[in-house]
Design goal:
Layout (H helix, E strand, L loop, with lengths): L1 H18 L4 H11 L9 H26 L4 H24 L2 H21 L14 H15 L4 H11 L4 H25 L5 H22 L4 H24 L1
Helix pairs in contact: 1-2, 1-3, 1-9, 2-3, 3-8, 3-9, 4-6, 4-8, 5-7, 5-10, 6-7, 7-8
Length: 249
């Protein structure tokens, strides 16, 4: 079981660093799908709690690689991080009390919305633009989703920084990865205090993620911008479909 969890973390780390997602979009549904088949039932709240550690690991490992490549807008990250940390605290508390079906439905709706926004902007030329005043509240919402769903907030942060913040897609992904590491610390502590965190699973996922995120950050620079957006969007659509099928059929 722990080997399977490390593999899940490895895949999540690669995809998370390439797309700036934090890996939770892979970890949460993968844990819910795999572990019951290995004799270890898990609730969505427990999967989200474990995912917070994967988010933290992607943030540490992926951001270090992106900083070396000069892609992280550190000043932007530090200015926006307080909004995501505040939102993450609120979302983590909500994640401990809301029913699993509600959490899964919110997760799926968020993924579908993010995919639509990215696909609708495929033809836009990737040049830097002045940021919108809507960026701070949108990043606070990203933090809420991060705490509630264990996804690192990247599914909102990347589109926000790319579509509203005016950052090119690669810099938006790198800066999202940088921010999510700061946000995940508070989220993980809240889930631990709530008694739903499995330390062994969390460590196994984090180990895989640390390795995968470093590799993913190196692979990302080889992928064209348009393909990054398409790949990101397809992953979001697939995961949303899985969650809606599981909790509404």
């Amino acid at each position: 079981m722990l080997f399977a969890t490390v593999v899940i973390g490895l895949i999540a780390g690669v995809l998370g660093a390439i797309l700036g997602l934090g890996g939770g979009v892979v970890v949460v549904p993968a844990l819910e799908f795999m572990l019951p088949r290995l004799g270890h039932p898990i609730t969505i709240q427990q999967a989200v709690a474990v995912s917070q550690f994967s988010v933290l690991a992607v943030g540490l490992s992926g951001a270090a690689a992106y900083l070396q490549q000069g892609l992280v807008r550190a000043r932007t990250g530090y200015l926006l991080a307080p909004y995501t940390i505040l939102g993450g605290t609120v979302g983590s508390v909500l994640g401990l009390v809301l029913p699993a079906q509600v959490v899964a439905t919110v997760f799926a709706a968020l993924l579908l919305y993010s995919a639509f926004n990215l696909l609708s902007g495929l033809k836009r030329v990737e040049v830097e633009r002045p940021p919108s005043p809507l960026v701070p509240p949108a990043m606070t919402f990203a933090g809420v989703m991060s705490g509630l769903l264990g996804i690192g907030g990247g599914t909102v942060q990347v589109p926000v920084m790319n579509l509203l913040g005016g950052l090119p897609i690669r810099q938006a992904i790198a800066t999202s990865t940088f921010i999510m590491g700061l946000t995940a610390v508070a989220n993980a502590l809240i889930y631990q205090a709530g008694g739903v965190l499995d330390p062994a699973l969390a460590c196994a996922v984090a180990l895989g993620v640390l390795i995968g995120a470093r590799a993913g950050a190196g692979l990302q620079k080889k992928i064209p911008d348009r393909q990054l957006k398409v790949f990101f969007s397809l992953l979001l659509l697939f995961t949303a479909g899985q969650l809606l099928w599981k909790y509404w059929t």
